[in-house]
Each structure stands twice: as structure tokens, then as C-alpha cells.
Amino acid sequence: MRCAVAEGVAVRAGVQCAFGCASEHDVDEAAVLAVVERLTAAGAAEINLADTAGRAQPFQVRQLVTRASAVVPTKRLSLHLHDAGGMGLANLVAGYESGVRRFDTAAGALGGCPFVKDAAGNLATENAVRVLARMGADTGIAPDILARAAQRLTALLGHTRHKRL
């Protein structure tokens, strides 16, 4: 990463299973923050805190973002959220209220995690955009157009796992 940064490459680094792991369950927050510190010191332009296993809860998101922002400004933090247990949007709101403005989502909630059994899909972009718009955020995205596009995409792929707002 240091070589890439020295060559002018903007590196986006991710901390997987930052909120919990399918096999180890709880993840030590201090260990996550240590990784954030190392990635920041190595020059990462963005640090993505990933809820890879779909175990995050809003209080965890608020707490980890707050503590990570002591190491790296929130404008350089992003969140990767899954919609396990229907918590994806609640975690998005918690992250947004904590200062995060970048979120990994997927149209139609496509995706998931191939190494986590029964992993829920990624947070649906169309639902995230609607919630953020209702919170007054200017996403620059037309929610209705996005929702129609996501619906067409999921129909083409035969994907029906998530609910639309």
C-alpha cells in the first residue's frame, strides 16, 4: 500500500468483519482500531469498516465510527453494510448520524458473503437512498428511477430476497 500511495494511487482499504465474525462472533474493537491505525499510517485515502458477517448493531456502528474518527476523519471513513436481521438501514442511519457519508450498497440488495452461511444480501441502494433523502441528505440520485432500475435488475436475475421501502 505504501508503494501504491507513493506512486499517487488513492487506496481504499477495508477492515472486514469489523463488527463481528461468523466463526469468532465478537471481534475486539481495539484490534479493529489497531488495523485502522495501521492502514491510516500506510496512507489509505479511505478506510471502510465492513459488516461482512451482518452482525452489526446501531450502537456498535456509532461507537466504532466515533472511536475510529479519533484516528481518521469521518470524511475518510465508509461503511459496508449487510441487511442481516433487517438491521442494515438502522446501521446506515447510525453511521450517517455519526458523520459517515460513504456507504457500500448494492442495487436490489444483490450480493452477500460467500464465506458466511446464510448471509443476507448487501444493503439495497434504493432503500439507502430513500432513507438518506428522508433524512435530508442530497444523494444526487433520483430514488424512483433507481428503484425502477433495481426492480428490473432483480427481476432479470430472479432475485427476490429483499423488501423495498
Could you please describe the fold and organization of this structure?
The protein is α/β, with parallel strands linked by helices. About 40% of the residues lie in helices and about 10% in strands. It is built from six helices and four strands. The protein has a four-stranded parallel sheet with strand order 1-2-3-4, with helices on one face. Helix 3 packs parallel to helix 4, helix 4 packs across helix 5 and helix 5 runs antiparallel to helix 6 (about 145-155). It is globular. The protein starts with a helix and ends in an 8-residue tail after the last helix. The model has no long low-confidence stretch (mean pLDDT about 90).
SSE diagram, text form:
Layout: H1 2-6, E1 12-15, H2 29-41, E2 46-50, H3 58-68, E3 77-80, H4 88-97, E4 102-104, H5 125-134, H6 143-157
Parallel strand pairs: 1-2, 2-3, 3-4
